[in-house]
Specification:
heterodimer, A: alpha+beta, B: alpha+beta, 3 helices, 51% helix, elongated
């Protein structure tokens, strides 16, 4: 079937918050498309060796409603507070957990992401961390012993 | 007729109370619920196949 890649110029940058369609969610009582906020930690150009097509692999950490994350889990994770979330295009205080289990690598395509162009055309904000938040971002990486920039994806 | 109107009125009242309001991103509903590592790690076979056959390049 193949993927419908977004135009390369629309790719996000590290520190951006974008909207992911993965994991897919179905709710029979409330049908319609769902999306999740994710914080981009890596963007790597890739080539599909089967047909030579090029695409961007986006690695991102998932965001969760801060009120649904135990306070003891806020340490070493990026907490977007009450006074910060609107500037990032979020709807509420949000925690981006930095553990590797909360991270996913996906191709920058229609099937997995809302394109930045869609978000802009809807008058929405596709946010990017400010300087202070970026400092916290790196503190989270360091505290967890994670490498930044992220290591190049392994080739199978 | 009055009884019927009463029933319709009750149904609308019930319906409006049980309809959840969602935060929206355009036509999409924003989901902030917690995710398990298993849910995130679940593989879409087509995506896994793509990464198995792809390599990083420089631009």
């Amino acid at each position: 079937m193949g993927f419908n890649y977004h135009h390369p110029d629309t790719r996000p940058q590290v520190y951006d918050i974008v909207w992911s369609k993965w994991p897919r969610r179905e709710d029979k009582l409330s049908p319609g498309p769902w999306t999740r906020c994710v914080l981009v930690v890596d963007v790597t150009p890739m080539q599909d060796e089967r047909d030579g097509s090029e695409f961007f692999a986006v690695t991102a950490q998932y965001g969760t409603d801060r009120d649904k994350v135990a306070e003891e889990d806020w340490a070493n994770n990026l907490v977007i507070e009450e006074h910060e979330f609107r500037a990032l295009g979020l709807h509420k205080p949000t925690v981006f957990k930095f553990d590797l289990g909360n991270r996913k690598r996906l191709p920058w395509c229609e099937e997995y992401f809302l394109p930045q162009g869609y978000v802009r055309s809807q008058g929405l904000i596709a946010g990017s961390l400010n300087t202070g938040q970026r400092v916290k971002f790196h503190s989270c990486f360091n505290a967890r012993g994670l490498t930044f920039p992220c290591p190049a994806p392994a080739v199978a | 007729m009055e009884a019927l109107l009463q029933k319709v009125s009750e149904w609308f009242h019930y319906s409006s109370k049980t309809t959840t309001q969602h935060d929206m991103v355009g036509k999409y509903k924003a989901d902030y619920s917690p995710l398990s590592a298993e849910e995130i790690a679940a593989e879409d076979p087509e995506c896994a196949e793509l990464f198995r056959n792809s390599k990083p390049i420089s631009r």
